[in-house]
Design a protein that fits this description.
- The protein is mainly α.
- It has helices spanning 2-19, 23-35, 39-52, 57-69, 73-86, 91-103, 107-120, 125-137, 141-154, 159-172.
- Helix 3 (39-52) packs antiparallel against helix 4, helix 5 packs antiparallel against helix 6 (91-103) and helix 8 (125-137) packs antiparallel against helix 9.
Length: 174
């Protein structure tokens, strides 16, 4: 009887342990879900990770990316702001907060965040692209066109953005 009780206790411990995931495991799962397009699942896992570890910068970043992908730009902006508070020397949260601000019409804020991201990493074509779009929206034609040209020169990776940049240059910069 004593060995049966011990076996039950060990089984309970093993089962309980296997279902208690760490913040790192949840963040890793979030990253995989985001990469496979399961943005809502990624948000759920990152949210759980943040509850377990409120200082997990990657959970905020990947939850922010996922919120951006589903069009929750305000939520993405909030998560990237938190990531910036934890690591202000990384261009990526500034970059994506800038993109989020652009999408919600905060062009001045988008320009500031993209400028900071460019200071930290001057080789991001997409950051120049978004800063150029935001500058055009603020009627800063010359510098907006310059940013779009830099984005093209650096080589935008996504074809639709490259086409859009060329169209904007053709329509607004010549």
């Amino acid at each position: 009887m004593k060995s049966l009780f011990s076996l039950i206790c060990i089984s309970f411990f093993v089962c309980t342990y296997s279902y208690n995931q760490s913040a790192q495991e949840l963040t890793d799962r979030c990253i995989i879900k985001k990469a496979t397009g399961d943005y809502r699942g990624a948000i759920a896992d990152c949210t759980k990770a943040i509850v377990l570890d409120p200082d997990c910068v990657y959970a905020f970043r990947f939850r922010g990316y996922s919120k951006y992908e589903i069009g929750d730009f305000q939520g993405a902006k909030s998560d990237f702001t938190k990531a910036i508070e934890m690591d202000s020397n990384n261009a990526i949260p500034f970059r994506y907060r800038g993109y989020s601000k652009h999408e919600i019409g905060d062009y001045k804020g988008a320009i500031a965040d993209c400028t900071k991201a460019i200071e930290l990493d001057p080789n991001s074509a997409l950051t120049y692209f978004y800063r150029g779009l935001s500058k055009l929206a603020k009627n800063q034609k010359d510098s907006g066109c310059l940013d779009l040209s830099v984005a093209v020169d650096l080589g935008l990776h996504r074809a639709h953005e490259m086409i859009r940049a060329h169209e904007l240059i053709r329509d607004h910069c010549n």
